[in-house]
Amino acid sequence: MKLPSLVLSLNLFLVGGGRAAEKPFPEPHGLAGGASVATNTIRVASCQARNRVIDWRLTNPAEVLAAVDRNLAELETIVHRAGELKCDALAFPEDTPGLLNWVGMNEHLAREVLPQTVQRMIERLGRAAATHRMSLVLCSDLVETDGATCNTAFYLGRDGKEIGRYHKVCPTWSESGSRHRGASFPVFATPDSGTVGLAICYDLVMPETARCLALAGADIIFFPTMGMAAIGDDDIGLQALRVRAVENFVWLVVAHRGKGAMIISPQGKIIAQADGPDGLAIADINPHGGREGGDSSNWQRDMRARLFRERNPAAFGLLTDPNPPVLAKVPLALTREEAGRVMARMLTVGDQEFKAADALARAGKTNDAIAAYTRLREEYRDSWIDRVSRDRLLKLKASTSHAATAEQPRLKP
Hints:
Number of domains: 2
Radius of gyration: 25 Å
CATH class of the largest domain: Alpha Beta
Strand content: 15-25%
Shape: globular
Structural class: alpha/beta
Helix content: 25-40%
């Protein structure tokens, strides 16, 4: 029988079973170094969901909700697959129901559609998870009772009911044009999974977010996302995720859309990765374990015992200054609202408009192409369309200048 697409990774030392690895330093006496660590083992899973994006052109709320239901039906099969594999917890990626692009172009309808979407998502997927006594992490835009739209992660217990929710504290500049920022880092104590924290996508680009959750006592951070934890080339975003885990000695369960679902230990090791669309990364872990470490004069079963006492919060005031000196050196041309409108169009019609400008250039309609790229730079400022259109313009103008020079008549001697 062909197994479902997943990678199952088991680290026996970390889960409290098997032969313990040899310790590099003698274990000290006393509570901090020698205290026993709870050894309950749970099986956690993160989903690498394929791209289920609802067509932004739909303007009938009933049709939008029907599309949501189709997505939920497919996600429900993933819930049952994880349950059949005896998982205790499953996390889905950011924008679980697939409405992100649609919301950006239909804000006036979103206030009607989002509440119904979130209710259906929690009830349907929560009910499926409850049949396996499995907790669940979901993520969607949400219109709260005060009218604020927030990018929200939901933590459901083994009975399928909501235990708590988290509003994304650090949305991107573009996201925050139409979404409110969260203002706190709630954590949720559980009888068997330790203390659970939640973070969403761009949150972890800010090191302070994971640190706040760890300081609040989180043992596991579930991370629904469509990105990584740093902006840069090569695998820097992946390595930043590993750093977030090890600098706080927490388990990090990354649920990603398309590619990148994984589970990272408190030692910063990737112990499970998903394979392919709708694949699952699964690992058996001890929520309270995996934090051993130190140096020759400081070995701890839980490194947080010393690490979080060695901080100097009194010197960190600049971190909470809303207007630090650096902002005067790096002005920003776009308001949140303008950036939000750019992002909404970029995710929907932008690619088509860029391809149309490219077609003009390929057809040799140079002046029309220059006009099109110039317009795109203005309409999609600070996006990839702006950046690539700039490069196209430089090449077109250079070729036009070269052709004009070549056509000039040569003077006779």
